[in-house]
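@channel sequence for tomorrow's demo:
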Amino acid sequence: MDRKHFLTATAGAMGALTLAGCGGSDQETDSVPFAADPAPDGTPRILIAGGGFRTEFIGYMAALTGRPRPRLCYLPTAAADRPSAIENWYTYCEPLEVDAHHQEVFISSYRMEQSWEEVFLSMDGIVVSGGNTLNQQAIWRAQGIDEVLREAWNRGIILGGASAGSLCWFEEGTTDSRPQRLTKVECLGFLPGSHSPHYDGEEERRPAYHRLIGSGELKPGWACDNDAGIYFEGTEPARFVSTREGAGVYYVDLVDGEVVETAYPTEAIERT
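structure tokens (generated this afternoon):
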């Protein structure tokens, strides 16, 4: 669904909601291009951030597709298809030369005429929302979306997101999706090892990640501060990027029984 149809579909049910930037999807704006070095077509690619996957990261993803006006789809499952999250997505995309869409999963057969394959495999990029990773994974598996996303990845459709939208691509990681404390969650496994988002944004993230890796409950893996991220080609990191000075990326390993954290310098996402 694109923005124009989203606004039409939600107008009656959301009369009390103030919608920012309510122009249609064909609204004219001054586009903001970003510098990137696209990989060859068909290369599996994932762009993640620890938090803050907004205009800069979306623009960088768009540039990585190598398309002049890429089709980008927002998948807000972890946010329970919340209308405000969907509207924020269109607001973030507004300055960019992209064809923005979103796909809800709380759907009815009578109102959705396309299959998951037809929707997601027609895109150049798919951005996954933050929210409850545990619920997201359960819904995707129940709907078969996990397998469609794997097919998209194998075809070279670039995947990405922050928080639940970064964690979901790894084998496992830390989640706040259960009561009381951060725990382990098992995810899609496109990328090996574990992941911790919000590394500098939430007080418990770093100590919990160290503790779980140190105990062997979690595999070693990548941690990202808010506004910092990693671009993967295949399963290997190709670039470390950020939109804020001081935002970092780290690899956390277990060496001779000790947790070792290695920081990687990031390069700023640049506008051309």
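heads up for whoever presents: The chain has a mean pLDDT of 89.
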